[in-house]
Amino acid sequence: MAMSDRLLSAWYRGHPALTLLRPLEWLYRRIVRHRRQRFLAGEGHIYQPPVPLIVVGNITVGGTGKTPLILWMIQHCQRSGLRVGVVSRGYGANPPQLPWRVEAEHSAAIAGDEPLLIVQRTGVSLMIDPDRSRAVQALLASEPLDLILSDDGMQHYRLARDLELVLIDAARGLGNQRCLPAGPLREPVERLQSVDAVLYNGAADDRNDGFAFQLQPTELVNLNSGERRSLDHFPPGQALHAVAGIGNPQRFFTTLETLHWRTIPHAFADHAEYSAQALNFTPSLPLVMTEKDAVKCRPFAAADWWYLAVDAAPSPAFVAWFDTQLMRLLPARLLP
């Protein structure tokens, strides 16, 4: 088990050695609270976009299903005729310059896996730059937009925002509720009191403090040919290799188990780089991976490699709430 995996396990399952990190946690809390207070006081340069901006992020380290929810939000807005743009840090990207507009034909090495996935799935205008304020300005300079979504950026306080949505894994919660490095929190738990909405990935029902959303598998897509097959393409009990390089690989493996396939799991680090050799498993079986991994593996994919397409399904209460927020933020002429 890698060091990062051991640390994640300690944060979410508990370990007495974490008490040794409390002094560093105290220092970290002071820094993030100071940055937050400066933002609330309007100190420093804070860029206010001329169109509404919604931050979709988390306060924890580890996967929370952020990309699928952003995909749902993009498509929901596009169906209403809204011109939506997205900005992202572009973790793992190595573009020739910054800011960089991601196009569907780019490689994941240049664009980053999550930004490339978002563009290939939705065709949305997307700009990457660790300086998200600069990314927003570049995006608006390139074309007219009605709304911008920030893929993460909760802690990027140089960028003003109109809505903050925080995602939490319903199964793992907030772990030991301590900040880095003694726990998985990027900001203290009380930060949740100031956000506009909390969404629990995997929750069956809405909660008093947040909305529920599920990740629903929809189909299998062949990396080599692009062929799309229904979920009964593999019969119950089918043995296959399962690959996941995401923040919470076990969630993907559990999803495959619910489809009644017999998986051999292969967990990789989040945003892992792959090669044909690294995925040359024995015995020889079909291989199923996440869509995020697939954007990096297409150039060397074998004929029996597939990705599982997954869609976010937020609760009806969240959909109604989100539509209300759009009506509040956008001019009436833009809404159906």
From TrEMBL:
One of its GO terms (biological process) is lipid A biosynthetic process. Pathway: Glycolipid biosynthesis; lipid IV(A) biosynthesis; lipid IV(A) from (3R)-3-hydroxytetradecanoyl-[acyl-carrier-protein] and UDP-N-acetyl-alpha-D-glucosamine: step 6/6. Pfam families: LpxK. Keywords: ATP-binding, Kinase, Lipid A biosynthesis, Lipid biosynthesis, Lipid metabolism, Nucleotide-binding, Transferase. It comes from the Bacteria. Its EC number is 2.7.1.130. PANTHER family: TETRAACYLDISACCHARIDE 4'-KINASE (PTHR42724), TETRAACYLDISACCHARIDE 4'-KINASE, MITOCHONDRIAL-RELATED (PTHR42724:SF1). Belongs to the LpxK family. Transfers the gamma-phosphate of ATP to the 4'-position of a tetraacyldisaccharide 1-phosphate intermediate (termed DS-1-P) to form tetraacyldisaccharide 1,4'-bis-phosphate (lipid IVA). This is Tetraacyldisaccharide 4'-kinase. The lineage of its organism: Bacteria, Pseudomonadati, Pseudomonadota, Gammaproteobacteria, Pseudomonadales.
